[in-house]
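Tutorial, part two.
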Amino acid sequence: MTGEMPQAPQVDLRSDTVTHPTTAMREAMASAPVGDDVFGDDPTVIALERRAAALLGKEAALFVPTGTMGNLVSLMAHVPRGGEVIAPAESHVFNDEAANYAVVVGAGLRPIAETEDGTPPVQSVVGAIQDSTDPHCPITSLVVVENCHAHTMSRPISPTYMRELRSSLIDGLPIHVDGARLFNAAVALGMPVSDLVADADSATFCLSKGLATPAGSVVVGSKAFIWRARRARKLVGGGMRQAGILAAAGLVALADGPDGTVARLANDHAMARRLAEGLAQQDGIVSPGHLAQPSGALLDPQRVVTNFVLFAVAGGLTRRAAYLQALRDHGVGMVSYPHGQIRAVTHLGIGEAEIDRALEASAKALAETAYH
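Running the prediction step on this input gives:
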């Protein structure tokens, strides 16, 4: 095979999944006591699951390889074949997980349009619940909330919304929180992460995004739910053996003290705001125009409260592609969504110098792609 190996951008804002494990994580991984997690006797995995369950205020937890698998096994544990899931129309579960709710779970999904704060209106959710007495209808079996909500600038969802949603649903209808960036939400709102899922029956969160581990996510819920999720993990091939080597990095991420990576998420949020404020001053940068401000309006940095900056460039899709390539030529990586948003995500390793370099590259890219 010939050709150059692909290289990451020098300033990589494509995602917070591009982080590298910290020195403390690497040391913990190298010395982690391990067993066989499929047999349930890996001590480091057990310690991570107990730590996660305690932090989120749930009975039990399950370590899984990815966030997508975390959501999938949660759906499998909650939803019978032929059941229906209610989820936000712009959610990861609906748009970005290869329709696994249909292919693997055998469920339908009813998308509900979100408001600009990332929440489907509670009354819209309630109105979408199917009448289980009508044999024509699938039975509504689960409501999904995404926190943070990616497509609205990764907005955190408050406990107030969760309480209203919980109190409005029929008894027994569970809520699952896709909390890929749940700790970003907790840091942004200044509250314990357990408060964000107190009214949920289950939740997932990713260790491999802003928390900087090399892999892994965690599912939490009741003991009975986790037992079903563990069987589902086995069914889809998610059982790992000496998984404590990976779980050790997760324990470091969730640790109190200087080695933990939760508290430092505040720096990611500050860097994202710095980037948004700089971009907003550049001619040609506009609002993403999707679940936020009208298309063509100025980018509003005040909407940036976590580590996402979503924006667009004036001139449409052709210029967007050229702008992204020009950024890449100047050593800066960003990505775009199909509906036109450009996404920049801050993370461990992105400081003021990297933000300033990204802003310089953006100014050059805008000049190089301007229409004359």
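The first strand starts at residue 11 and ends at 12. In part three we will examine how such features are distributed along the chain.
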